[in-house]
Amino acid sequence: MISKALLTDLYQFTMMQGLFKENLHRTPCVFDRFYRKNPFNGAYTVVAGLEHVIDYLKNLAFNEDDIAYLRETGLFEEDFLEYLKDFRFTGTVYAAPEGSVVFPGEVLVRIEAPKDEAMLIETPLSMYLNHESLIATKARRIRSVAGSDSLAEFGMRRAQGTNAAVYGARATIIGGFNGTSNVYSAAQYGIKPVGTMAHSWIMSFPDELTAFRSYAAQYENMLVLLVDTYDTLQQGVPNAIQVFREVKERRGGTMPKGYGIRLDSGDLSYLSQEAFQMLKEAGFEDATIFASNDLDEHRIADLKSQHSAITSWGVGTKLITADGTSALGGVYKLAGQWDEAGQFRPTMKFSDNIEKVTNPGCKKVLRLINRRNRKLIGDLICLVDETIDTTKPYTFENPMYPWKCTHLEANSFDVIDLLVPIFEKGKLVYDLPKLPEIVAYANEQIKLLWPEYLRLNRPPVVKVNISQKLHELKQTLLLQKVKRNHHE
Amino acid sequence: MISKALLTDLYQFTMMQGLFKENLHRTPCVFDRFYRKNPFNGAYTVVAGLEHVIDYLKNLAFNEDDIAYLRETGLFEEDFLEYLKDFRFTGTVYAAPEGSVVFPGEVLVRIEAPKDEAMLIETPLSMYLNHESLIATKARRIRSVAGSDSLAEFGMRRAQGTNAAVYGARATIIGGFNGTSNVYSAAQYGIKPVGTMAHSWIMSFPDELTAFRSYAAQYENMLVLLVDTYDTLQQGVPNAIQVFREVKERRGGTMPKGYGIRLDSGDLSYLSQEAFQMLKEAGFEDATIFASNDLDEHRIADLKSQHSAITSWGVGTKLITADGTSALGGVYKLAGQWDEAGQFRPTMKFSDNIEKVTNPGCKKVLRLINRRNRKLIGDLICLVDETIDTTKPYTFENPMYPWKCTHLEANSFDVIDLLVPIFEKGKLVYDLPKLPEIVAYANEQIKLLWPEYLRLNRPPVVKVNISQKLHELKQTLLLQKVKRNHHE
């Protein structure tokens, strides 16, 4: 059976062999992963997917079937295939932890590795991070309009395959969801499995009331009754109230936690408000009103603004497929390499398109946080050896726009390194957090942003500056390039 | 390790246990899978994903870890968990083969199974078919504008997880693509792996010409040179021509098959036409001009209409994520069940929304094909015991719109059953076709449609009628429902 080591683009292998033949394959180099544009027209991205990248890198090795397949393609020679047999990931990786709130242009993963290793891993690393960050971001947008309501991920049947469903469900938890209907994902990641009732359950009984009663007898502690099968207000809600009364009496006057009704069709605003009135009049005003049906952040925001009485939401298709932005365009670019004399040579991609010019060198991201209100002042992309002395006044500025600067007083702000060490020379040095720790970190991260940055459309732009030193390096390389062009 | 048996929604399990407790779980019933709206505003959907459904059903069984997890949730009782230990899929499945071109409302999978089995499988069956059919359809749209050009799937790094990449690549082949850059998928499904050259290859050498030469020395038989790293027309194409001349001389005057250049940025129409002129003047007018960069069916159609000289396309993000329609909304509905006396009771879903009323009963789809030109006349949804005698004249009509009918002469048309047997009482009876056979079938299927149905936007609607008998059954059930409502 072939292994995940083949999970990459063909040209990564042909390039690797090409470099191998030229004896350039072990050139140490630095690659940056970053993205250029926030998904969904938002102000931020929530990082997810790192756990799967780590798992991939840790286990990266070619088995006999992998090698046999590569041989079969006729593209590879025996010396290279022999070389692959002991191939492992030996690089150093720094990355923004899962749950980090990040912005365009920032280095989110820094890879220092021999060039062939760095090339091979580009495709799967990009895939995991692009996909899972996209879903976590979509989930966070939904959380940002849902307040403290309960949010459940319901999208498996429309997901783009098993991993989209399983990893996707995990990413929604990082983005602020409370549970998933996906049992596999729940089991795998210790997520709360959630679910209500199927229409086919109701239709398996002679009438709705009998169906509700049978369900209540069995699932008193997850008593959410689906009320829209026949007629929501004429029949569904009255039948639910009838059963709630019976349960209440059976339990000596108390109701089980989380009991309520589910709406899955019709106008959710109107139906929820009417249902709430009926429940309230019957003494069940604390009943959960759970809604589903093609929801996303925009529809939930609308329903909230129309005073719907919904307190719990099931979000499926549009969440698990990241409707609106089908892919996060994360890229992976060479930022420098060491020459034969051991000298580091920063490199950058030039482009006629100014925003496609990359940042050269071995970089990191410093996050400046206001010490008083714990809000983000902005992020600074700088070279790895740079520091900021927070005991002194500091001018936070972008050398490209020097008039747009922020003066910070001494001891008024904290500085945090966004990237943390994950692998050091191939060895995993990162203590993988459990999902609840990631969730706690993610919830803290989003609080760094003022509410206006959570706006669904046209939010303000979070300040991300580059350091003076990085700016100078960039200018030097641009000038060298201009001179080279004139010379040619 | 938990198994794929947990790949479903939690409520499927709670409903299953509920029916188990009521001893209703083994009620034989019929479920239909169908969809209501074509993706991408097109006229059709291409079926894919059946192979993964079959694999899932064949291997469906709960292992000890699955049972242990379900126990852990606290929702399930020991008698039910004990029951799950020997649980297998024992149902009968009829389905439209992969590659079939299908239309809204048609039964695409018919499941006859005990109710608990039919419920459990709903979620994964829907997921595989929704996802893979969506990608195959997107690919077919791209193929429909690309003519006989070569099409390569390049989307792995932006796919929504591993399965989206691996199964997705397979689906693009069913939709008419020629190859994929995804090595894993290529190995798994015997697809042609394709790839060109990375920008980081060019940047690993002192200059572009050296990089091209090194590549040509190693990969003469996949000699596609990436010409946009520095300056496409000033430098990239001239360097490529230089290397082509050297290769030609080395080979005694012939060029290797498929040699050419790749454009990955800039205005692809202008650049391809200029590059073509330069190649032509140098005697390389048969060079492949390969293009990539955020392509989809609309952009390719535009480039074609502007006489671009591109002959080969690499399509990534927008294909592998089905940009434009993030999910195919396939649904799965109860169509009938057998009562305790063994009598079949057709059921249907009523809805205020007319197009959401489902078709009751045990159904199939007959495909009427014009014998002379082999074009599709239309599809008929009917009950399983219905037949059409092609030796007699036949009126193809929809009882709901009797004025829109087509009179067919005797012996002027053929009738084909769209659905084929896949499982009979749990036993796989379908001889799984290899991918090339599926591709051949898919290519024949699309030819059933006149070209206007392949139009990207606002194509005409393919005729799908329901039979007189099915119409009558529907009317009877609707009338019963109306009477019941009055009675209540």
Automatic annotation (TrEMBL), chains A, B:
Q: Name one GO biological process term.
A: NAD+ biosynthetic process via the salvage pathway
Q: How is it modified after translation?
A: Transiently phosphorylated on a His residue during the reaction cycle. Phosphorylation strongly increases the affinity for substrates and increases the rate of nicotinate D-ribonucleotide production. Dephosphorylation regenerates the low-affinity form of the enzyme, leading to product release.
Q: Does the UniProt entry include the keyword Acetylation?
A: no
Looking at the record, the residues that make up the Nicotinate phosphoribosyltransferase C-terminal domain are 363-474
Nicotinate/nicotinamide phosphoribosyltransferase domain segment(s) = 151-321
Cross-referenced SUPFAM superfamilies:
Nicotinate/Quinolinate PRTase C-terminal domain-like, Nicotinate/Quinolinate PRTase N-terminal domain-like
Q: Write out the GO cellular component annotations.
A: cytosol
Do the record's keywords include Ligase? yes
GO molecular function annotation: nicotinamide phosphoribosyltransferase activity; nicotinate phosphoribosyltransferase activity
User: Which reactions is this enzyme annotated as catalysing?
Assistant: 5-phospho-alpha-D-ribose 1-diphosphate + nicotinate + ATP + H2O = nicotinate beta-D-ribonucleotide + ADP + phosphate + diphosphate
> What is this enzyme's class at the first EC digit?
ligase
Its annotated pathway reads: Cofactor biosynthesis; NAD(+) biosynthesis; nicotinate D-ribonucleotide from nicotinate: step 1/1
Q: Which UniProt keywords apply?
A: Glycosyltransferase, Ligase, Phosphoprotein, Pyridine nucleotide biosynthesis, Transferase
| E.C. numbers | 6.3.4.21
Q: Which Pfam families match?
A: NAPRTase (PF04095), NAPRTase_C (PF17956), NAPRTase_N (PF17767)
According to its UniProt entry, the function of this protein is described as: Catalyzes the first step in the biosynthesis of NAD from nicotinic acid, the ATP-dependent synthesis of beta-nicotinate D-ribonucleotide from nicotinate and 5-phospho-D-ribose 1-phosphate.
Record family assignment:
Belongs to the NAPRTase family.
Protein name in UniProt: Nicotinate phosphoribosyltransferase
Organism encoding this protein: Veillonella criceti
Per the UniProt record, the lineage of the source organism begins with: Bacteria, Bacillati, Bacillota, Negativicutes, Veillonellales
Instruction: Write the gene name.
Output: pncB2
